[in-house]
Specification:
alpha+beta; Serine Threonine Protein Phosphatase 5, Tetratricopeptide repeat; 2 domains; three-stranded antiparallel β-sheet
């Protein structure tokens, strides 16, 4: 029977009836010389009692001890380079609990992580407090990277599941997803076996074109929006000042991409930065420069956002502030055609160029310092109204899956 102790931070908890327990961490030194290392056999038991990932706990050892760490999920093997005593490892555990497990308000280990706009919060189930962790600690970089990785994997699994099940993305009256069904020859042809004649119906076509694009239609199968494709074009003259410094930079990027159509993301990103610097505009304007250079009136049909997503990520670098300016750039080019906005927003989200937290922050912040001057309050409200179904869908997804990390 392994020895258990009270879950405590740097201040011990001596109450024998304290119900929060954890096993004492134990290490096993292996190797010799430069290859000496400490294996932690019960890392999973320790992390499970703290409701945290074993890899995260092991990474904390590395951050505090200045040692390289590895954790293999399949073999459940945690390794910390160097020779470390059980007492030293246990002291590190108490420090970890103090910073990343205990609620700052009530002091109980009833917290889960809630990650919003690149910041990590303690969400306490005991007292309801939501407090930010010490974001200057090196472990925060690891936690944010793992959260992003999990979201990508979850999104990928969902896409594969829907593809396997043939889900159309549309709901029936009962709220259940409708599955695609293969057309039979009888469906294609008339009852007599002869091909059906296509009837022209101008009124029906007009109604379909004027129909509002709904969030349930946003899926990986872009053909679902093809009926509205004519209405999903970008007006290249919207709000553009041809004499402006940004427009000159945009022209420079376009000229480069025309001269070198097979240029990679790194090359284009470098040109964007050079154009931004030579035009003497602000650093965040490079997002505006890139978006206006790559998005054309045929963005939807040519799947330009899908094609150029790696270029966008090279410029934003996953920085929350730069992603806010990315939304600002999309607002700018969609200001006269707001129906384009939610489509672009959803495509950027699907390509992981925009994170869920950033989109929700934009939705509820109102007009802010990120918003372009050309987009006044009324225009932004129109864009926000078009994006409402997508925002609701994101909130439903967030509510069903949660933003916590065990």
């Amino acid at each position: 029977m392994p020895t258990v102790v009270n879950i405590a931070g740097t201040t011990p908890v001596d109450d024998p009836s304290y119900r929060y327990k954890m096993p004492l961490v134990c290490g096993k030194v292996e190797g010799r010389g430069n290859g000496i290392k400490t294996v932690i056999p019960n890392i999973s038991e320790v992390s499970l009692s703290l409701h945290r990932d074993a890899g995260e706990v092991n990474k904390f050892f590395g951050c505090e001890l200045g040692a390289q760490t590895t954790f293999n999920v399949k073999t459940d093997r945690a390794v910390v380079n160097g020779s470390h005593t059980d007492a030293a490892l246990q002291a590190m555990i108490h420090k970890y609990v103090e910073s990343f497990v205990l609620c700052p308000q009530c002091g109980l280990p009833e917290t889960r992580y809630k990650i919003r706009i690149g910041c990590i919060y303690h969400n306490c189930a005991a007292c309801g407090a939501v407090e930010m962790v010490d974001m200057e600690h090196k472990l925060c970089t690891y936690i944010l990277a793992q959260d992003k990785k999990k979201k990508k994997e979850k999104k990928k699994e969902k896409k594969e599941k829907e593809k396997a099940e043939g889900v159309t993305g549309k709901d029936d009256a009962s709220g259940k997803k409708i599955k695609k069904s293969k057309k039979t020859s009888k469906d294609k042809d008339g009852d007599d076996g002869k091909p059906k004649k296509k009837k022209k119906n101008k009124k029906r076509k007009k109604d379909k074109k004027d129909k509002e694009v709904k969030v349930d239609d946003y899926s990986d199968d872009e053909k679902k929006l093809s009926d509205d494709a004519d209405d999903l074009s970008v007006d290249s003259n919207v709000g553009v000042d041809d004499t402006g410094a940004i427009e000159l930079a945009v022209d420079g990027v376009r000229d480069f991409m025309k001269a070198k159509p097979n240029a990679g993301a790194d090359e284009v990103a470098e040109v964007v930065v050079n154009q931004q610097m030579s035009s003497a505009v602000k650093s965040h304007d490079k997002v505006q420069i890139l978006i206006r250079a790559i998005i054309t009136p045929s963005f939807f049909k040519e799947k330009q956002i899908e094609k150029y997503a790696p270029y966008i990520e090279k410029v934003t670098l996953g920085n929350p502030i730069m992603e806010r300016y990315l939304i600002s750039a999309i607002e700018y080019i969609c200001v006269d055609k707001p129906k384009n906005f939610p489509v672009m927003l959803k495509q950027l989200y699907d390509e992981d160029a925009l994170q869920e937290d950033i989109i929700l922050a934009w939705a509820f912040d109102g007009r802010s310092v990120y918003t372009a001057e050309a987009v006044d309050e009324d225009k932004r409200s129109a864009l926000r109204a078009e994006a409402e179904p997508f925002i609701t869908w994101l909130q439903d997804e967030d509510g069903s899956s949660g933003s916590s990390s065990d």
